[in-house]
Each structure stands twice: as structure tokens, then as C-alpha cells.
Amino acid sequence: MSNPMLGAVAGAVFGALAVAMMLPMEFPDKRAALIGAFINRFSIGLVIGCVTMPWPGWAIGLFFGLLLSAADAIITKAYAPILIVGGLGGLVIGGLIHGWAGR
């Protein structure tokens, strides 16, 4: 399987996990919040799968996980949960797709 396809699959799994974690929470517009969270987490996986950099895979994942989560964290002012989940998810996806060691 190609790296972009692995990224799409990993992003879909990550998005589903994020939505599952958010289901018990209350939001003014719950449907929009869940769709937004899924799209954000899916995009983290997809971007990590599509990018090629000379960094270790975990660093690529951590970087893009934090970068793509930053806007949501700023908008919602829920910095810690969004950045921690995005960073950890990106770290795992990057390590799985690109490897854990440097190149």
C-alpha cells in the first residue's frame, strides 16, 4: 500500500477515534464539532502520508499533528486536549508510515 493510502486509512481511524472520544461531550452544535474533529484528524493522517522529509517519521508526525491541530486549539481555547491528542496521533501515524528511526 502506498504512503498516501496508508495516511488516508490512518487518518480515518484517527478521526473515528477522535469522534468516539467526543461523543459523550456537550456542544452547542454537536454535529459540526464532530465533523470538524473528524476532518482535522483525517487531514493529519493524509498529510503525513503524502509528505516526504529527511526527518525521522515520528518527528514528521509530531510536527504535522501539532501544526494542523493549532488552529482548532486557538479557536476553541482548548489548547491542551487538542494539541496533546493531535501531537500523539501524529507521532504514532508518522512512526508507523515513515519509520521510527532517522533517515
Keywords for this structure?
103 residues; mainly alpha; 4 helices
Short description:
This protein is an all-alpha fold and 103 residues long. Helix content is 79%, strand content 0%. The relative contact order is 0.19.
Structure description:
The chain is mostly helical and 103 residues long. It has one domain (3-98). 79% of the residues lie in helices and 0% in strands. The chain is built from four helices and no strands. The chain has helices spanning 3-22, 30-50, 57-76, 79-98. The longest helix is centred in the middle third of the chain and has 21 residues, at 30-50.
Mean of residue pLDDT?
A: 96
Overall number of domains: 1
Low-confidence stretches: none
Give the strand content.
under 5%
Report on the biggest sheet: none
Number of helices: 4
Number of strands: 0
Order of helices and strands: HHHH
List the helices and strands and how they pair.
Blueprint: H1 3-22, H2 30-50, H3 57-76, H4 79-98
